[in-house]
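Input record, target 12 of the design panel.
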């Protein structure tokens, strides 16, 4: 296990370097600059701004300086948020996105597993049909459709929950964005659990358990569910990153100051350092979550060997 952890961490270094390098040069190759939308500036002021942010240097020199700053933990100044560094902006947005993502992942995992297990338990009967209809709706309906409908029903019509905002993270501000963000993942997990449970329930050792007189519910909960969760664990890696880093659509609709919102604003305003900082954080989280998923996979299936 230790050798696997060390190997994965060492492999993560060139992966992050490649991601940062590609993003750096693609941003520089895109038309426009970080200050093109400003009012017309004099050449002297433009030169001073370029010197302040090292934009007057050759691209390779900028790249070298940026990598040197990254190694020191400095993500650089933001071009558009003049009073904040990228480190400060990520420190403000990341906890918000992580909070929403954590609860959305928990809701998706629990509700999706229960829904999929119920569908498999009542396979080809009306509870299975209803569960799969809910799953198909959750997968096929975009977030930007679900979110306004929830706001219309729960906030405007019944006035049970606030329309949007963060509200310092109070639980009633989390309900709508968490539900909206978790629905597609919940539906995918439900479909995975159902299909895997139906396959596992045909295995010889399950038939042996039936012959011994164990109840169907006990067989499913004690013997079939654990191996059926292996594909779900594999799915949780990329799903956790997508949830934890927040949804751009969700944060825009509900006016949540998360990291996804900063990423969009940075991309639109050509805020190179902000976009690079967010990409770096997402890359690190992707590597960490995939590593955690591999460890959980080994706990659920000890037959997996180090590779």
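The sequence produced for target 12 reads:
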């Amino acid at each position: 296990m230790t050798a696997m952890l060390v190997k994965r961490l060492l492999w993560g270094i060139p992966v992050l370097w490649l991601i940062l390098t590609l993003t750096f040069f693609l941003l520089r190759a895109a038309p426009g600059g970080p200050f093109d939308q400003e009012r017309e500036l004099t050449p002297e002021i433009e030169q001073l701004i370029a010197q302040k942010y090292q934009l007057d240097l050759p691209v390779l020199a900028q790249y070298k300086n940026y990598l040197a700053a990254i190694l020191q933990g400095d993500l650089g100044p933001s071009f558009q948020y003049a009073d904040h560094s990228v480190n400060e902006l990520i420190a403000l947005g990341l906890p918000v996105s992580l909070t929403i993502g954590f609860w959305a992942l928990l809701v998706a995992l629990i509700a999706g597993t229960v829904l999929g297990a119920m569908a498999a338990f009542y396979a080809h009967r009306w509870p299975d049909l209803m569960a799969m209809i809910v799953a198909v709706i959750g997968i096929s309906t975009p977030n930007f459709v679900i979110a306004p409908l929830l706001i219309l029903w729960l906030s405007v019509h019944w006035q049970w929950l606030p329309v949007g905002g963060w509200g310092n993270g109070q639980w009633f501000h989390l309900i709508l964005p968490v539900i909206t963000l978790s629905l597609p993942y919940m539906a995918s997990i439900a479909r995975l659990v159902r299909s895997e449970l139906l396959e596992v329930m045909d295995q010889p050792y399950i038939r042996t358990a039936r012959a011994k007189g164990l109840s169907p519910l006990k067989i499913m909960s004690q013997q079939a569910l654990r191996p059926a969760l292996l594909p779900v664990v594999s799915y949780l890696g990329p799903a956790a990153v997508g949830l934890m880093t927040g949804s751009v659509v969700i944060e825009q609709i509900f006016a949540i100051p998360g990291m996804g919102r900063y990423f969009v604003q940075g991309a639109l305003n050509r805020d190179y350092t902000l976009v690079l900082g967010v990409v770096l954080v997402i890359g690190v989280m992707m590597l960490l979550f995939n590593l955690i998923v591999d460890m959980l996979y080994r706990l659920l299936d000890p037959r997996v060997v180090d590779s």
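Residues 23 and 35 are 19 Å apart (CA to CA).
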